[in-house]
Amino acid sequence: MKVTLALALCGSAAAYVAPAAKSAGVAMSASKADMADLAEANPDFLGSSLGLWDPLGCLSLDFWTLGNEATIGYLRHAEIKHGRVAMAAFLGYLAQSTPVVSGPHGKLPFKGYEPGLTPPEQWDAIPLVGKLQIFGIIGMLESYGEILDVHYTNGGLPGYYPPIRGNRPELWFNLYDPFNWFDEDKDKVRGRQVEINNGRLAMLGILSVLSESKVPGSVPLITGLIPEYSGSYMVPFEADFSLFN
């Protein structure tokens, strides 16, 4: 559970580092007016009811003096990425709450495994070397995702992840659309709208779960359904070491 939150934080931390400028290519840059059109074209509830939602005025800012269009590209990519992390986190929390995952196992998933732990407690129980392996894989995938012919801050498609299938013998599938279900452009456009909407809902969902586990009763709809957690979600290595104690 904590690893998905940590992944989201990694993406947030990247907000303080200017993306490297990439080679020029087919321009797909978007302005604030384009964002309003995209929001209104979204046929689902959030798009049709809210339209463009930018209460802090971020779409008018200029991050790292890259220009407003580059800033919008970065924000669009960040929202899609954080939505994907939130969907993985929410589904992961549900899966890790079932006896199939958290119950007894004939062969232990890792040294020190204990049945009956809550999802965040399961993360705390993973040995440090296991956690470092997970973060290492995340870092490699994140770095590879920045190798784009046309970067998302330079007119590239926000949310696009380059193919990895075939780069090594063990890489049989791509991370995005591994089974090539979306062959038509119209399916990809609709799929992207659904992904954005589901990502937004998942961000609300996982934050609600985390809030309820730390402050019981803070989310009335799920009060009593989420076990309390005494650790800190913001300190993923709390069970291993601390830089301040």
Characterise the protein shown here.
The chain is mostly helical. It has a domain at 32-45 and 61-214: Chlorophyll a-b binding protein (Orthogonal Bundle), CATH 1.10.3460. It contains eight helices and no strands. It has helices spanning 2-13, 32-41, 45-50, 68-96, 99-102, 119-125, 128-145, 185-214. The chain starts with a helix and ends in a 31-residue tail after the last helix. Mean pLDDT is 82; it is low at 5-27.
What are the SSEs and their pairings?
Layout: H1 2-13, H2 32-41, H3 45-50, H4 68-96, H5 99-102, H6 119-125, H7 128-145, H8 185-214
Descriptors for this entry?
Chlorophyll a-b binding protein, 47% helix, globular, 8 helices, mainly alpha, 245 residues
| Structural class by SSE content | mainly alpha
Unreliable parts: 5-27
CATH class of one domain: Mainly Alpha
N- and C-termini, Cα separation: 24 Å
Mean residue pLDDT: 82
> If helices are DSSP runs of H or I spanning 4 or more residues, what is the number of helices?
8
CATH-derived topology of one domain: Chlorophyll a-b binding protein
Helix content: 40-55%
Radius of gyration from the CA trace?
Answer: 20 Å
**Second rung of CATH, namely the architecture of one domain:** Orthogonal Bundle
In short, what is this structure?
Residues 1-15 form the signal peptide. By secondary structure, the chain is mainly α.
